[in-house]
């Protein structure tokens, strides 16, 4: 545990030190967000590419930690590098969605080649926790999971400190689960990632002096998707789908609701709107800080439920999962999340 705390602290200090440097670099390369429409919350030009500081802290801490780099870690390093390159390019010159998908697909392949993939799904109706092998389906399922979570964190990045804070809460959730079930590699990765995010957050929390940009949001999404496959499991041979979906719940549900809302209203799925949770909280009269803190609390509650799900048997774990999902859907329906809000 002492070594994990040290990894956390080193990563945090590096990220805190790198961020001002990245901020200056962002202005030099014109990686700047200029408010152009009503969906933008900020009112002045803001430097992007803040995720580069998180990446640098994560990468250096991982490479120079004690012990050799594992095959899984090499796959994660390669994948994150591809994602960061995509993010930097997008922060400077906006990429089209299909261009981003090419980078994300390549990054997901890095995980597959290194052996990180969804191999089993726990059978919720078997009292012995028997796991169902999914064979070839593990490849498309892994790719869909990685691309989905990568984009979910990106879409929720709408307020100062929002995506970074939710990413931190998700990483801590997976860290706790990894410690409880002796998933050493996942614990190391989440300790380093948590430190890197926390070092960046003081610059990103309202009022922010730098944004994560695509570089950071996509990076966090990718890393959390990869690490959740590595650590959020009940044993070496069982993937408990309840845990990552709850631990990363807020960005997942907000994204799914946005897709449903746009589809129901005959609008392109990739078209932006002001129907996201953070927009609705602002429209209720809350300040940015109040809205972000509320979303932090929601994410923390879902993370806590994910930890509880790991402490109970499979049947009750899935029952808890279904109950939470139904509750969220009912609340979203009543609140009008499926109605388009321009």
From TrEMBL:
GO molecular function: transferase activity
Keyword Transmembrane: yes
Keywords per UniProt: Cell membrane, Membrane, Transferase, Transmembrane, Transmembrane helix
Entry annotated with the keyword Transferase: yes
Protein localization: Cell membrane
Bilayer topology term: Multi-pass membrane protein
Transmembrane segments: 6-26, 46-64, 70-89, 101-118, 130-149, 161-181, 187-205, 217-233, 239-260, 291-312, 318-337
Name of the protein in question: Undecaprenyl-phosphate alpha-N-acetylglucosaminyl 1-phosphate transferase
Organism per entry: Clostridium omnivorum
Taxonomic path: Bacteria, Bacillati, Bacillota, Clostridia, Eubacteriales
